[in-house]
Amino acid sequence: MNYPIKIILTLFFFSLRLLNAQIFEGYTLYSPTGGGPGGGTGGTSYLMDNDMNMIHTWTHSRGAASMPYLMADSSIIYPYRVQSPTMSSGGVGGGIAHIAWDSSILWQFTISDDTYQHHHDVQPLPNGNILVIAWERKTANEAYAMGRQTIDNPLGEMWSTAIFEFEMVPPNQANIVWEWHLWDHLIQDNDASLPGFGVVSEHPELFDINKGEVGGGGGPGGSNADWMHINAIDYNPHLDHIAISSRHQNEIFIIDHSTTTEEAAGHTGGNSGKGGDFLYRWGNPSNYDRGSSNDQKLDSQHGVNWIKEGYPGEGNLILYNNNYASNSSAVFELVPPLTSDSSNYIISESEPYGPDNPIWMHTGGFHSNVQSGAFRLENGNTLISVADDGQIFEVDSTGFMVWNYTHPGNNIMVARAQKYSIDFLGGGDTTGFPDYRVGDVNFDEKVDLFDLFYTSDMYYGYYLPTPPADINEDSEVNFQDIMAFVYKIMNFNR
Known about the structure:
By secondary structure, the chain is mainly β. It contains five helices and 28 strands. It folds into two domains: about 400 residues, TolB, C-terminal domain (Neuraminidase, 6 Propeller), CATH 2.120.10.30; about 45 residues, no CATH class.
């Protein structure tokens, strides 16, 4: 084929693909950080549209521990780094705030004492409560008494993991309504006289206390005793399950939230019948002696979450595998092997949990050693955050990049970002919709053709109507609003 014709055809098909590429219409929420472990430089949370217009910002006195969460009433849940954490390593936090659209603090709470220190992520629940990850300090003697053989850090401590469900009590209190502790679900095969003695390979529902190092002398925050380094938490309301990700153990885990706190401390109870034991784990089967290093699938992964009901791939897990290959990260989508009643996960007597491989993967051209994450969007695209580069981009199901943004500045990190649909604010009920200007549908502080396009899309049913699009203020978005919009724009341009 003639070379110039090849070029023309290539450009044609590339252009056709660009035309066909569908960017998910929504608002992206993220909180860049750059102030070091102390977070003393403060921070800002940004809500941005697809044209990189900042729809809204929230200013904070302390830097982010991870990512914020947008609520349907226009408020955000913001995990942040306290001034003097009691335990400090990568992802240290300690504070959680519920912040209104106008940046007023509705509630804030600190988890930073001699025993517990919040870090990384939180997860708002449908009931209004919040799941929180915390380090749980154990002394070396406590660890040895449980069968740990070595403590590999100068502190002489071992930080285990706890998960709390907090009920917010404004302005600055919280009730613990449920809790889970990894320390209740350990096994060891070294000393029959100590608790938890057993054959590790026969108990994948428990974690071997002798797997992995226990912190070290360096890293963010200096000396630490961070054993698991849980960096993300998610909740599945259909299953009533919780997913967490452990960077240091290169595994993800699922536990049963349907238990009582008492059941969560044991091995029976809940919908699963297994109490607080692991229902599922994936990524590094050598941790429960059902594989070798050759079978390890994950390396320093972050950001595990379920794909939401009604989205392409619903019920699957998606995560960011930081060190998939040399200087290369990847996004994995997994199909967990659920039983027919969805209460447990299938595993053979001798093999590790499946699947053998992800059902979908995206890699190439991006890498971050820390934080990062991925979320499936309603149209089937995937939003990916590359923390080290401050980059957020969106790919379609084939891996084609349809949208890309990098936050400006040096040494900026974006832990993770989420994208919310245009009609998310208000949650189908405008009583909690943020302050707005009639006509400014995309919140860019201008009334122009872009707002007319959004209003037209709402009229034709592509998006749910929002109050700013109700130009004639008759409590509905209809053709009259489109005509009023045209008149408004023409009048502005006279």
